[in-house]
Amino acid sequence: MAVRQIRLFGDPVLRSPSAPITEIDDGVRALVRDLVDTVEPPGRAGVAAPQIGVGLRAFSYNIDGDIGYVLNPVLVEVSGEPTPIGEGCLSVPGLWHDALRYPHAKVVGIDLDGNELVLEGDGLLAQALQHETDHLDGTLYIDRLSPEERRVAMREIRESDWF
Questions:
Q1: Which CATH architecture has domain 12-159?
Q2: Taking the complete model, does pTM exceed 0.85, yes or no?
Q3: Adjacent-strand bridge partners of 69
Q4: Does residue 80 surpass a pLDDT of 90?
Q5: Which region, left, alpha or beta, applies to residue 95 given φ > 0 means left and ψ of -120 to 50 means alpha?
Q6: Cβ-Cβ contacts under 8 Å for 11 (sequence gap 6 or more)
Q7: pLDDT surpasses 80 at 1
Q8: Burial class of residue 57, CB neighbours in 10 A (0-12, 13-18, 19+)
Q9: How far is CA 145 from each of CA 39, 98, 151, rounded to the nearest angstrom?
């Protein structure tokens, strides 16, 4: 349908836990199309529904050209030793900081037909699964930074042109 505008840090929808999708209707199908269209541009690994102003549990992903979505995702498993890894966010543009993430993650949700959907992987996919499910819980990646890094990030946000 459309590439939607990304909501930026400070927008309350980004800090609000998302509601589960209880009925798959035309509105949800349109949301998925918009999420997929919005994640397609180069440099985007994922877009959560709150980032386009919709408080529902859904996100899209674009990992190495593999584009998809999941509804009502739940992060059911993480493994390995959490390590700081460079991360950015469309809702906090221009910032790049090391966030603590697990090297492996697994998300379970559903597709538009109500069938179970399992996304599991390492590296960038694991990072994206954790990042996008955080968005659905009202958490931003800057919340995962060390206290010192978070202070730096908050200063960068306050000094940014978009804030």
A1: Alpha-Beta Complex (3.90)
A2: yes
A3: 60
A4: yes
A5: beta
A6: 53, 91
A7: no
A8: buried
A9: 24, 7, 9
HEC per residue, the chain? CCCCCCCCCCCHHHHCCCECCCCCCHHHHHHHHHHHHHHCCCCCCEEEHHHHCCCECEEEEEECCEEEEEEEEEEEEEECCCEEEEECCCCCCCCCEEEEECCEEEEEEECCCCCEEEEEEEHHHHHHHHHHHHHHCCCCHHHHCCHHHHHHHHHHHHHCCCC
Q: Using CA atoms, how far apart are residues 19 and 49, in angstroms rounded to an integer?
A: 10
What is the C-alpha to C-alpha distance for residues 114 and 103, in angstroms, rounded to an integer? 29
The label of the residue with tokens 């968005």 reads 135
The domain segmentation of the chain, as residue ranges, is 12-159
Instruction: Give the active site residues.
Output: 132
Q: What are phi and psi of 114, to 5 degrees?
A: 85, 5
| pLDDT tens readout for residues 91-108 | 999 999 999 999 999 999
Cβ count near 133 (within 10 Å): 23
pLDDT value, residue 142: 96
What length does the chain have?
163
Query: Parallel, antiparallel, or unpaired: how do β-strands 104-110 and 66-79 relate?
Result: antiparallel
